[in-house]
Amino acid sequence: MGKYYIEKVRQRGSSPRLQVYNNALLSVQYGQSFEQTRTDSEEWGHIVEIWPLVLTW
What we know:
Oligomer: single chain
Helix content: 40-55%
Largest sheet: none
Radius of gyration: 19 Å
Mean pLDDT: 72
Distance between the termini: 37 Å
Order of helices and strands: HHHH
Strand content: under 5%
Shape: elongated
């Protein structure tokens, strides 16, 4: 393609991220119960920040 295409080919800066729309699938990765995840504010924040995307989708 470099032979025939004069302009530089665009390349992505980073790979696309996988967006999990089902919190059950996300919770399985943590290996904690719902209560443990709920009390851990950092982990709970990761789960909660997905909901605006789910609601708009």
